[in-house]
Task: inverse folding
């Protein structure tokens, strides 16, 4: 999902991390006009869900999902939230209420935390590993509220709940709890996804590298989603050129670096290392944008047919979902829905028919 | 007061007694009050706007959907009505709360105020993971609001070091957005000493249960001198004659004279006082009746009479310095309509004369 004001922006450079984290950025202000336009286009383009990112630079994800969800009919909202910022009982009450308004069109992306500095601004002083332990307790309690018939009792290191009960249920046509995406590359994140989540969310890499990592997740009943950015153009060459045009000027580059190196996210450090060392992971996978647009900017690029083949290959190794960005997001989504998705669906049909 | 979910009858009619029973039984697990139902709320909100009502209070408890979400959904469907969101201070980090409230303000053009409650019954608090005592909860609420107010006041980073909260360089880019102010009104309810202190130090409006003007005049004057507004909560029964109003009031009394819902809130000072008062004198004045209080608690104190008697009563409260009224009715929607049609014009006319 685009940031506030992003739908109206003219250049990709305006969406970079340095500018959108400034207090004067339109990213701080709810943008119902832009979001509604984007969300309705997403429905038309065959997109199932959008991810709403959580940070101190942007409006609250649960409330955005509520407002935009009421302006749409099919689109689902994957709400990113950090587990240390709200009690699990209150969180379940908010999400369940939201599910009732949107007929269940809400999923959850639980994030254990962000940079130490940002966490402290929210009143959270735990270290990286403790945050995962807390996230595990947090989700354990949430899952009890969703799945147990009885009152919830929990006695942990970070939370204690006695005879917890919330009358408002999670309401959806086909489920009684939201899907839970857990993102992160660290050992703890993977463990959390396996034990408490329904889908592990990680950055894209080459199918060869991912195949052995994806397999154990699928064997244990956990889905795998990849985050990537997409540049689809008529030819590979044009896509590469569009990618190069994304790179910003040197001043932004330095500021961006300064922000990124402060994070204690393992995911981000992996992505940065990849960008520095190789740049190109394969013919269609490029990490050149990562230093400027963040770790989720590893880019799959090429012609529609090349990209359709890539998606099918990821599907073959067990990947079940993709969370896709683009520059601009709206236009790239339209291209994806028009050029790439029909090729993928066609190939799936002929495989199934065989 | 916003009716509970499912309380508004869209087709057919509802007697005052049926409306009261719906509310009394709303804490049952199978009550429709648990499931958010936007249609009835939108209908009520439109009637309230037509009746000249400025704001509605949206309650918080474990039996009903989350009030921030309700205000978001209903705020998007209305144009003028304001929402006083009740929230308990121990359930999330103040920074997260401010981020949610600010986001909501941007989505509904600033039509949001807060009613901060330090806590509810011990049992309900335990279910939310809160194990503090009554007085500790007030100390925490004080810190909670101090941090919130710092976010709303400050253009720079927020630093706070207290017993319950610690925030280091807190910063939220999303501001509170409203045409006429940069922070919400903060209502604090309660009759205890700590609650009065809290409203003086961190709030803007003291909310308490109605009493006779003679009993209220000193406390109200103290608050107003300190620059704090005063809001009275009451139930309203307006009928062509006092005798008819009394008859309606009596019809709400439970068949089971021992029925009580107020034991749920065992450690609230307001509830203890009300219980004591109500048993020995059900008529507090000619128009103020506490007959329902022993059963359902202090907010069921009823102001009743003919339109003229009630208009006089409201003008009298205004004269002693009361600024706001939060009114309930049985059914809410009919009483709101009657209030706007019969009573408000008389009050406005009397104000003109003064």
Result:
């Amino acid at each position: 999902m685009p940031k506030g004001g992003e739908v109206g922006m003219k250049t990709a450079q305006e969406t970079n991390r340095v500018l959108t984290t400034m207090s004067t950025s339109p990213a701080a202000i709810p943008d119902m006009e832009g979001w509604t336009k984007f969300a309705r286009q997403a429905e038309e383009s065959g997109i199932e869900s959008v991810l709403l990112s959580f940070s101190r630079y942007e409006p609250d994800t649960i409330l955005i999902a509520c407002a935009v969800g009421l302006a749409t009919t099919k689109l689902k909202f994957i709400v990113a939230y950090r587990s240390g910022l709200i009690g699990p009982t209150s969180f379940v009450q908010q999400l369940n209420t939201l599910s009732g308004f949107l007929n269940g069109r809400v999923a959850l992306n639980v994030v254990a935390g962000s940079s130490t500095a940002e966490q402290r601004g929210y009143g959270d002083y735990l270290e990286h590993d403790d945050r995962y332990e807390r996230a595990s307790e947090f989700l354990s309690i949430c899952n009890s509220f969703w799945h147990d018939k009885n009152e919830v009792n929990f006695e942990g290191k970070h939370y204690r709940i006695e005879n917890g009960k919330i009358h408002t249920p999670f309401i959806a046509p086909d489920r009684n709890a939201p899907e839970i995406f857990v993102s992160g590359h660290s050992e703890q994140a993977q463990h959390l996804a396996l034990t408490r989540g329904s889908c592990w969310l990680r950055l894209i890499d080459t199918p060869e590298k991912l195949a052995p990592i994806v397999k154990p997740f699928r064997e244990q009943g956990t889905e795998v989603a990849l985050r990537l950015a997409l540049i689809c153009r008529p030819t590979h060459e044009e896509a590469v050129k569009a990618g190069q045009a994304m790179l910003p000027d040197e001043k932004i580059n330095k500021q961006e670096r300064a922000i990124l190196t402060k994070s204690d996210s393992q995911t981000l450090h992996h992505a940065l290392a990849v960008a520095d060392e190789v740049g190109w992971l394969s013919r269609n996978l490029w990490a050149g944008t990562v230093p400027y647009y963040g770790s989720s900017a590893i880019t799959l690029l090429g012609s529609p047919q090349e990209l359709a083949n890539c998606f099918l290959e990821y599907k073959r190794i067990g990947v079940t979902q993709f969370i896709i960005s683009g520059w601009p997001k709206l236009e790239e989504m339209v291209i994806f829905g028009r050029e790439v998705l029909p090729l993928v669906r066609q190939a799936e049909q002929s495989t199934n028919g065989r | 007061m916003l009716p509970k979910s499912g309380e508004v009858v869209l087709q057919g009619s509802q007697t005052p007694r049926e409306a009261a029973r719906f509310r009394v039984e709303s804490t049952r697990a199978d009550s429709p009050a648990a499931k958010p139902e936007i249609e009835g709320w939108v209908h009520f909100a439109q009637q309230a706007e037509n009746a000249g009502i400025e704001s509605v209070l949206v309650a918080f408890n474990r039996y009903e959907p989350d009030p921030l979400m309700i205000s978001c959904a209903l705020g998007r469907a209305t144009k003028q009505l304001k929402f006083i969101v009740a929230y308990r201070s121990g359930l999330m980090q103040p920074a997260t709360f401010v981020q949610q409230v600010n986001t909501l303000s941007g989505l509904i053009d600033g039509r949001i105020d807060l009613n901060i409650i330090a806590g509810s019954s011990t049992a309900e608090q335990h279910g939310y993971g809160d194990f503090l005592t009554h007085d500790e909860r007030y100390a925490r609420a004080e810190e909670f609001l101090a941090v919130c107010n710092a976010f709303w006041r400050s253009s720079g980073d927020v630093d706070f070091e207290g017993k319950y909260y610690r925030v280091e360089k807190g910063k939220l880019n999303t501001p509170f957005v409203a045409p006429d102010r940069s922070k919400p009104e903060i209502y604090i309810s309660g009759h205890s000493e700590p609650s009065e202190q809290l409203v003086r130090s961190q709030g803007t409006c003291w909310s308490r249960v109605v009493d006779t003007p003679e009993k209220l005049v000193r406390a109200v004057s103290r608050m107003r001198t300190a620059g704090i507004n005063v809001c009275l909560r009451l139930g309203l029964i307006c009928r062509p004659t006092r005798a008819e109003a009394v008859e309606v009031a009596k019809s709400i009394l439970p068949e089971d004279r021992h029925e009580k819902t107020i034991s749920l809130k065992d450690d609230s000072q307001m509830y203890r006082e009300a219980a004591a008062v109500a048993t020995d004198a059900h008529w507090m004045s000619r128009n103020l009746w506490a007959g329902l209080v022993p059963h359902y608690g202090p907010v069921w104190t009823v102001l009743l009479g003919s339109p003229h008697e009630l208009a006089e009563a409201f003008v009298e409260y205004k004269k002693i310095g009361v600024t706001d009224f939060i009114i309930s009715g049985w059914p809410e929607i009919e009483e709101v309509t009657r209030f706007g049609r019969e009573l408000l014009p008389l009050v406005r006319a009397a104000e003109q004369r003064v």
About this structure: The mean pLDDT of chain B is 93.
